[in-house]
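Amino acid chain
________________
===
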Amino acid sequence: MSIDCINREPLDEFIKNNLKESRYIHSLGVEEMAVRLAEMHGADTDKAAFAGRYHDLAKNFDNETMDAYIRKYDLPEYLLGNNALAHSKVAAAILENEFGVDDEDVLNAVRYHTTARKDMSILEETIFVADVVEDNRTYSDLDYYQQLAYRDLDQACLEILEYTIRSLTTKGKEIDKDTLEARDWVLNKIKETENGK
């Protein structure tokens, strides 16, 4: 079913009921930023708005609820007890199985908005970056990353991935292989673009 045909009222009700107020405001911010970036970089603005608004619909589930969804939709076991990684995969599964979303690009944009992955579409990159640079974020380098995202989506994607990898390494946390592959992929993409000029 095309996202144009999806009844948004139950979805909006779902995120209002399941997200903390700050996360709900963040989701609307990602929607707005995703549309802005989509317009600049040639992604579908309707899909960007949809994926942006609903990307975090599982973010505030408690461990028990998240793990129940992981089992219900037969998602990988390594996600159990790991809400930070699981919420994006669970959100995509809920959108697909409970709300009838079958647009693979939208589902992947939601599914990989935390880790990124190699061979991302423009929409996937848009949501990955918009999640980090939406206007409600409060970190000190926000303006820098926003300006970079407006100018060069690939470069913004690369710098966010490199920051994530450094941060996780410093904290002694495991880095998802999709994130490492995404970093290598976008780095090669940038090099190929530069060599093609």
User: Anything to note?
Assistant: The radius of gyration is 16 Å. The chain has one domain: 3-196. The chain has a mean pLDDT of 95.
